[in-house]
Amino acid sequence: MVVRPALGTTSAPAPVRPRPPPESPCSSWFAVVGRSDPAINAPSHAYLWTNGKMTDLGTLGGTFSQASAVNDHGLVIGTSLTAAGTTDGFAWAGGHISALAVDGATARPIGVNERDQVILTTGAAAQPGQPATTLGWLWRAGQRTALGTLGGQSATPTDIDNVGAVFGASDLASGDTHAALWLPRL
Q1: What value does the mean pLDDT of the chain take?
Q2: Whole-structure pTM value
């Protein structure tokens, strides 16, 4: 990815009505994700609702999960408690859930596009005399790529389009924050 300062303002592309999967007998495909309590007084789990059927997506070993987005291919992203009691991001597809942790740091998924690319952030707590840092990442099929910064310590992606361009903000070496655009290498 190439990181560049963004010029002017950008807006997210308009939502597109999902197309049905090729194997679907339906004329339209609609999916909803979120969290639901599978039983009274039970911890919430992430779910995917399609064609009138709700699928429990499970957890990363903990007792709670929550889905936040889904693309047209059914790739779901969200957060979950792990067996160790920490929170981490996940990607779920075809019945399999995968942690998005980067080098042991907690990941928070931000968005997913139609190329099954996920943008996420990881953060490090502030140390004495140092600010907290946030780093942006691009994840696809289990591979993570750091987005980089504009010379500062932090970068935060906020959206990704279907070409793979990532929009967000990054710190400059001066400490100021500036809009940023990460472009895929074509």
Answers
A1: 82
A2: 0.79
